[in-house]
């Protein structure tokens, strides 16, 4: 019988809002110790001035797959699973601000732990035609100091448009808290206001009477007079699933995962990651393709690969890959977190794992019963993130938990916000390197914040151990362990998209 080696892993996703249940997985057998001499966070320079690193970014297809290695031949298997449920028809949500629980706080069945949210929406306006082309403005429904915003040719209009056809006070945009919609209203302009080429001004043009408010949607074109055109970008407040429930809208799955073992084109390396999108799933989908390919491009250069294996540290590779990915993303109003776990083996078949992350998805590695947190929390309320922001020279005020409406200080994409506030960053946290010998026992779990909102690290580890013990003899044990963790998050009524990647590292240590 041919010898066989497989990496036991399973990805499971939960989307509040529907009831589909699709699953697939691969599984095989176990076999792992932590070498503290390798867990330093010290960075080894891999190349001088980054000359070896490629500067081009190439896309790859396939967001979720696992490779089962048999006789040195690889086969790609689709791996994702989505668990969904239908929102209750009569479900009501109190109009209050919910605070996300700290990871160490116990959760009870009658509680609904949720992340810090502000019920509302974001609106970005950009002048795409006319004399003031390029002028833009970002609005938050929950920030009353910003609203309403008036558009006009001269001050005191909030957004001054240098166009002779624009009245001194031409139009006004505001957030309607009753309908939970953005609205534009003509303020009695002389040349009219148009929404998608339809007049919204008072029928008696020139009477100086205000028109009726008109609802704004994403992608609408507002025209003042005949030449000044605004493009509107409307989205839910970042990390705000409750708006969808209150308005009856479907909460879209914005989590995307990536599982590659071995890393395409690079032997002895594997990559697992979760990208949690906000404002849409575009940035998450793009990053899930571009980032793995950038890492593969860098490691495909033999000198770089040999340095990583020699020093047992991939810090520079991860940082450079994140920088290339951020440069390749052109998403102005969408962003995403990124949490990836890189796994590799040296010539002696010793295994090493290292993590890099932006945002609030998290990764843990358990080695011989010791749990190691591989990620850093980049929510604005976290101590480390507030300290980083303070070093920028523009510290947050006491009680301030958001920047431009976002509760994250670091992310990929969101180029418009990064232009508005330089405190946003795309610099990842890079973890220590964990050395896994052939004799120790280990597993890794990566999950988006929907899981950590309702279960702390200790609870997650316990769930994994329960699952491993319960399904140890079953071929699909990895699938069942991941679903076991996810089902507990669902039972505790997580209100956010939730993705879990479970990697049984024991299987990786077995020789073919």
UniProtKB/TrEMBL annotation:
<keyword id="KW-0460">Magnesium</keyword>
<feature type="compositionally biased region" description="Basic and acidic residues">
    <location>
        <begin position="94"/>
        <end position="107"/>
    </location>
</feature>
<keyword id="KW-0904">Protein phosphatase</keyword>
<feature type="domain" description="PPM-type phosphatase">
    <location>
        <begin position="235"/>
        <end position="505"/>
    </location>
</feature>
<dbReference type="Pfam" id="PF00481">
    <property type="entry name" value="PP2C"/>
</dbReference>
<keyword id="KW-0378">Hydrolase</keyword>
<dbReference type="Pfam" id="PF00498">
    <property type="entry name" value="FHA"/>
</dbReference>
<feature type="domain" description="FHA">
    <location>
        <begin position="149"/>
        <end position="200"/>
    </location>
</feature>
<dbReference type="InterPro" id="IPR000222">
    <property type="entry name" value="PP2C_BS"/>
</dbReference>
<dbReference type="GO" id="GO:0004722">
    <property type="term" value="F:protein serine/threonine phosphatase activity"/>
</dbReference>
<dbReference type="InterPro" id="IPR001932">
    <property type="entry name" value="PPM-type_phosphatase-like_dom"/>
</dbReference>
<dbReference type="GO" id="GO:0043169">
    <property type="term" value="F:cation binding"/>
</dbReference>
<dbReference type="InterPro" id="IPR000253">
    <property type="entry name" value="FHA_dom"/>
</dbReference>
<dbReference type="InterPro" id="IPR015655">
    <property type="entry name" value="PP2C"/>
</dbReference>
<protein>
    <recommendedName>
        <fullName>protein-serine/threonine phosphatase</fullName>
        <ecNumber>3.1.3.16</ecNumber>
    </recommendedName>
</protein>
<keyword id="KW-0464">Manganese</keyword>
<feature type="region of interest" description="Disordered">
    <location>
        <begin position="87"/>
        <end position="107"/>
    </location>
</feature>
<comment type="similarity">
    <text>Belongs to the PP2C family.</text>
</comment>
